[in-house]
Write a sequence for this structure.
């Protein structure tokens, strides 16, 4: 249920908005295959009645869609979905939200920012916090490796020593797997993407947390999934809502983080984990447990994959958050027959894997210094968490919970501010923020914002934030007084 | 039109084969969405008549499909496609051919082979032929790069200096593009995969050459495309057949190599290139020109993208074939508005790109030694081509043409031998061959085989090949005399 992009609000919505709403309705039906190429569109009169708009609004919308090539007009007959559908565009499939609360807005702003820019809204640590020295040493070691390591393709599953090492690391979280149950990928995201290809069909329903990592929305839209969500609580998904949604919507798949939830920093409790798995069994639900923040934990939290034994839970991870985001390497752990099919799919869609980056990751992880690096990173993050939490509270920005670990603080803004307004204001000063609704399918996080504490330490960030909070507040005040 | 996996041949086909054929027919209809979840299957009697098999064969097939969870039996009502479709499996969607002529067979055999094994059937040079020294130097240089280069995410389009360098290289082939029209990917395959996601819907028709690179089949099946093919001639696709297929099947997309065609080694002629583009315009066809063998050319051949100006042609490339397959890096060149949408899609499905491998590729390409490396590589390949061609002729294996450049020789085997039999025999001696039908949608290349000359120089390969040719010949002789 993709939330309708533009909400109608009676008299205040202008004609332009209504035309856009009609266009979006049709685009979504086409994207969701409710209207297939060649299909006749509803008559102008019928759609006008259904959507409670004037016939001229529908005519206007249809004519613009003809202009875009999405539909065709056959005079005397009606309107039809274009046969050669315009190239699929994610931003078309996604709700045409204001760019400030579009999932791509934040990805692209963060990735396009200059290396030195401040990005409290991004999902990674500053490069200087990562295993830079380890990477340097690994590069030097690799420069002396044999020629096949430097120039040959990797094996279908990927580096066997790295897969063995991954199983050892998973065992520390209680997840038993053998190396043949691990397939390396180019990234955690690629792992989820391959799994979506393997597990779901266009139109299938997929369940996510609300809020959840915004790229899950984008990824699932690329797969044309129907997305539903359940509210997230400090100990996991709201289990009543979870049970209800399974019964009601019969999702095929649930994608979640367990150890450190993105964006809330919450931790799944054992009792909720157990209930999730019982319900998953009852409703034949497959679960992808995205564990890319595993290395940040101080004490291991429950993993769904540990309870389930990799039966209906698939465990994925990567090394981008603690080691290096420049050397892309992720993995999937699943039952052997699924790994077999996923390997074919990986070969078909990206051929081999990145042998060199897998070797590099292996080098860094095997290096005795990596554990030390992670330990000092965790201390540094804890300090930043305490520090930033206090400073944000001073601005009236209140954390929803104090996370046990990780880099994220999920905060409520003061005075019913709209986080999108604040983000827009901050961007003028080249500070990239992450407004709450980017993470929320139900768009119920208007007053929330995710802060990456490692990127919020600079005084300038706090200054801009302060300004960005004061400005919309002042504006809101003006508008309110103007209206009143 | 996926070729039927198992051919019925009257009395010789056993009952098991007939049951498998019926199962495969149903699986393909489900995979191709001809039968959607919940749909009722044809009655046992009707399907038996249609497929010219007994009703008990259909009953048997339906029961096994129920066992697999693909369909459900509703007693008193009939059989239905399962609502929760079993996880999508490529090997299910692909024809269940004998493993020896399954596209995955060759990919996986080649990738799983030990580094020292001989793989005349694989699509890459021995690692020792690649830019090993350049990679070593680049790794040492990178170990001194700044921290962001070593640990940060890449920009959405990927390294700007590398994109600039790619446009300069493309200009040498007459293709004009600016760096904003280039998006880096993890590999050439990933580039095509993103394009398929962007350009086609499940069920859309895509045109390929016959023969063509076998992974195009696997990739397109992963996208649930309907695949059609046109015969390839020494100067490009058979243009009559091409025109006919466009008119008849209205494919949305054509995927081809121009400079050095895989597997035939043929070169597109300017006149055919021009005709292709005229027809593409007439039938609104988009073309992906896969140019990953560009660096092997002695004299540049025509590129479709050069004539077309990146309007309806998309140009892709990578560095796996001449530089290193361990450092994955490919690119797409297309019109700006497509690059914009592709970038969103790349972020959604794999987040950033491999910054480190892009920097490594840039280092190697900028290194003055790379041109020298490529020049000596071309000389080495020319020699191997002459040498292997002569040796194969001695065994009665005759090249279809003498390629101008590259590593492939597309050859006809002697005495109507089935290349799959020869490949199977050679595999017992751990030599991986590439039988012709792996490349042929129409399965019309039974008597052909692709040889990678760089991997066919070892005397042991020729010995095994000789044996592998003699053995099936002897067997064929025995069978013939037994039958006669």
């Amino acid at each position: 249920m993709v939330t309708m992009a533009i909400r109608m609000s009676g008299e205040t919505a202008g004609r332009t908005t209504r035309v856009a709403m009609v266009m979006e309705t049709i685009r979504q039906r086409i994207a969701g295959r409710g209207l297939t190429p060649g299909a006749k569109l509803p008559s102008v009169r019928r759609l006008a009645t259904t959507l409670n708009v004037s016939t001229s609004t529908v005519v206007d919308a249809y004519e613009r869609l003809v202009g875009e090539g999405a539909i065709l007009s056959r005079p005397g007959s009606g309107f039809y979905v274009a046969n050669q559908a315009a190239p699929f565009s994610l931003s078309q499939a996604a709700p045409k939200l204001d760019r400030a609360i579009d999932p791509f807005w934040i990805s692209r702003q963060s990735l396009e920012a200059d290396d030195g820019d401040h990005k409290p809204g991004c999902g990674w640590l500053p490069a200087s916090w990562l295993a830079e020295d380890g990477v340097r040493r690994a590069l030097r070691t690799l420069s002396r490796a044999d020629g096949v390591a430097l120039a040959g393709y990797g094996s279908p599953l990927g580096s066997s020593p790295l897969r063995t090492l991954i199983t050892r690391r998973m065992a520390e979280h209680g997840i038993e797997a053998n190396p043949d149950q691990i397939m390396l990928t180019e990234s955690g995201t690629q792992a989820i993407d391959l799994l979506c290809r393997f597990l779901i069909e266009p139109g299938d329903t997929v369940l996510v947390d609300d809020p959840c990592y915004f790229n899950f929305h984008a990824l699932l839209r690329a797969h044309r999934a129907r997305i539903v969500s359940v509210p997230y609580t400090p100990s996991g998904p709201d289990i009543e809502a979870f049970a209800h949604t399974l019964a009601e919507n019969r999702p095929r798949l649930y994608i979640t983080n367990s150890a450190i939830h993105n964006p809330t920093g919450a931790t799944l409790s054992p009792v909720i984990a157990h209930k999730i798995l019982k319900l998953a069994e009852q409703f034949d639900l497959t679960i992808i447990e995205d564990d890319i923040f595993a290395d940040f934990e101080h004490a291991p939290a429950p993993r769904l994959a540990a309870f389930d034994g990799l039966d209906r839970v698939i465990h994925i991870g990567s090394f981008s958050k603690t080691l290096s985001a420049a050397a892309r390497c992720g993995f999937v752990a699943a039952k052997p027959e699924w790994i077999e099919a996923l390997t074919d799919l990986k070969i078909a869609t990206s051929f081999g894997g990145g042998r060199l980056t897998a070797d590099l990751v292996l080098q860094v992880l095997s290096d005795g210094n990596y554990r030390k690096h992670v330990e000092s990173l965790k201390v540094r993050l804890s300090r930043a968490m305490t520090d930033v939490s206090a400073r944000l509270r001073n601005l009236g920005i209140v954390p929803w919970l104090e996370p046990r670990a990780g880099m994220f603080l999920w905060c409520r803004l003061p005075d019913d501010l709209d986080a999108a307004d604040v983000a827009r204001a901050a961007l003028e000063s080249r500070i990239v923020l992450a407004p709450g609704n980017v993470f929320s399918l139900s768009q119920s996080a208007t007053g929330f914002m995710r802060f990456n504490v490692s990127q919020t330490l600079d005084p300038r960030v706090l200054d801009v934030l302060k300004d960005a909070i004061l400005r919309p507040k002042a504006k809101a005040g003006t508008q309110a007084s103007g209206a009143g």
